[in-house]
Amino acid sequence: MATAGLAVRMLSGNATPSARAAYRVAPYAKTAVPTARQLHLMNRLGTGFSVAAFRQMTAAGGETAWFERQLDPASVSENARGAAVPGWFPDLRRSPAEIWQTDQGSGKPGWEYARDLCNAALLRRTYSSRSVLESMVEFWSNHLHVDANHFPAFTVRSSYDDVIREHALGRFEDMLVAATLHPAMLLFLDNWKSVKNNPNENHGRELLELHTVGRDAGYTEQMVKDSAKILSGWTVVRDTWVRQYDANRHTTGAVTVLGFSRANSAADGSAVTEQYLRYLANHPATAQRICRKLAIRFVSDDPPAALVDRLAAVYLDSGTDIKPVLRALVAREEFWASAGQQVRTSMDDCIATLRALDVRASGPTGLSSFANELCWTLNSTLAFQWPRPDGPPERAGAWASTTRMLNSFRMHWNIAGGWWPNGEVTYRKPASFLPQKRVRFDQFVDHLCRVVLGRKSTSRILRAACEGIDVAPGEVITAKHAVISWKFPRLLAVLLDSPAHMSR
Q1: Can you tell me the distance from the alpha carbon of 252 to that of 12, in angstroms, rounded to the nearest whole number?
Q2: pLDDT tens profile 397-456
Q3: Nearest to 237 by CA among 167, 155, 324, 142
Q4: 359-373 average pLDDT score
Q5: DSSP of 277-339
């Protein structure tokens, strides 16, 4: 919590009482805003505020009913643009063999498939009506990370994304089995290189350290070796990149890992592998590790032990089902008290910006289209391209550096002005943000805060807006005023660069 609080204070700055008095907010009450609880739920468990998301929540009957519906994605009608996004990147649906051939020949190189996957993820999270599902897909993609640029895992990385999506709101033990034995993970962590009596230890080690029980569980080096023995035999056929189980590669012999013991005497050890993975998924140390990461992602950098213990108990009681855990998290006061105490990651910031400004991309027909260039606006590591197996960091301190902030400010500026990316995309016209033909500037700022940030204006924001674009609070704004004709991008940037937008 201390790290997140420091990061938010770095964003916030301080306003003196006299400054607050000089810039008194003039409410534009005709524009409705969500309650604090509604906004917090959209920002934390969803993918950020938008007028459309607020309408969706209101239509559902409030934040509680909305959240319950979100936990059953099939019950939520998908946004047409969100549903169309996967079809915008047809190359990702090529077979692994074809992807490999295009990389090895004179066709499409592997890094371009990784770029496509990043853009597809950003756009899907932006436009989907199933925002809780999208948030959980991101969470599990980080936890069970596979680098989309890895050679040769890039050939099967798109289908791995499908596996994460299928299980994101289901049981962790089912997801662990599917993800661990997917060819992308077998390639990324070198299990496909294992041979009989000499298993590669990388996958067995990371399974324990990163994906399940964690370093503090008390496993030994011998247990790492036994973990590798259990996973041996699972491999991938080169050039086609199809998974297979090869008993000739399986190392037999007794194994013991944190209370899991088997004779492991059969040549075909595939059944033992699944038993082992399900055992690890249900281990109390795994419950603690998964629930602590959930609490870090959705509550604070240093979540209270009591919160983690409660979530871990629900996780074990539910048979590793994630939905009850999320319900338990949202029921806790710690969740609601943490509003505004986390810094958005670069990707979360980009998605929230596109949603807030209602930026509407179209299916790409060329490399200069918005959908194909969006990933470069991050000025940061692209989605699924963290080079290490531990996945990108969740804690706020990693996302509060000066460089990151300046890069995000640049992204805000480009998107606010509709300057880049600008191919095959529709940006809202500045005049469309006017709530009426003539409006005082201080009221206009309040209206903008309501439709862009999902909250009312403050004296600090009003002061920043007035000083940033040199406009007095009482000036009357029309479609021909400089605020609309050429100063509007700077005004939007004031809101987007503020802690009200960059924290959540």
Answers
A1: 59
A2: 889 999 999 999 999 999 999 999 999 999 999 999 999 999 999 999 999 999 999 999
A3: 155
A4: 97
A5: HHHHHTSHHHHHHHHHHHHHHHT-SS--HHHHHHHHHHHHHTTSBHHHHHHHHHTSHHHHHTT
